[in-house]
Amino acid sequence: MAKKKETVPQRNATHILSYIMKIDQSIINGEYPNVNKLNKKYGWSFSRSTIGRYIEILKNDYDAPIDYDFQKNGYYYTDPTFYLQRVMLNEGELLTLSTILPLLEQYKNTPLEESYRNLMNKLIKMLPQNITVDSALINNEVHFISDPITKLEEGVFENILKATKLHCTLQMEYKTAQNTDYEERLFDPYHMICQKGSWYLLGYSHHAQAIRLYAMPRIKNCKVTEKKFSIPKDFKLEDHIDVQIGAWGNSGEKYKVEIEFVKGLKTYVMERTWHDGQKIKENKDGTVYLSFETNQLSQVASWVMSFTGGAKVLNPPKLKECVQDAARAILANG
């Protein structure tokens, strides 16, 4: 009868560290671990020499005061206060770590959500037992208000990510915001964008024969084809989106935006960075002047209107028209 092949545990750097940490924990627990005990407890199939190498790593890399007790047939620490320092975080750093979790809302309905949560949970589990933090800092006292999250069809995110990495054309069904019916499309994905919880795909549309921005929630039956594409050498992401303002509503050229805010908004406006290239100053009458360059006029128009009359567009004229048209439409629908 053929001998059953033993399963060999993975041994990359990450897994080796996890094995060493388990050995350390067994020693701290007073279990006096040896090769047989460790293999039985954790389901490993390590040889004596492999465990020996991990013990040597503990000794040489982590200065572990480790020795072997022949009477109890296992390893122990000669200094009972020693433990393997996994991730030493102070309370402030742990608070920072904990507040990252709510930000994962923008990755809902994508494989990144589970991956990031698992990563955060692993980091927290790696904390030494002697670090305790008020649970209010982790769960109750810090809240984030996020934008509404769009839903993606299962498999869409994975296939788009794969095609973007491999430079493979996508075959999909897509509908625009104005249409109710889906149409078959071929699309070369250049870049994935997440704007305020919504995912978009920038690339070359074979249908339009031009670069287009697709809303990923409107994509279904997405498949990665074997057809390869190359991104044009003259393609520049900043020509199509403004990472400071948004991606949806490219005006085709950059404009210098100039806005004046009422005096009552002075503190609110001046304590923020609205754009990396902004110029901001307080006027003599207490109003605030803000300017920056962007190719996202429609996004800026929406932002200006969110101040409900507290922001006045000085330039460019095209932005003034956008805001005025939107205001008239609101009044007409009221």
Automatic annotation (TrEMBL):
Residues 253-331 form the WCX domain. Keywords: DNA-binding. Residues 156-224 form the WYL domain. It holds the Pfam family WCX. PROSITE patterns: WYL. The keyword DNA-binding applies. It comes from the Bacteria. This is Predicted DNA-binding transcriptional regulator YafY, contains an HTH and WYL domains. One of its GO terms (molecular function) is DNA binding.
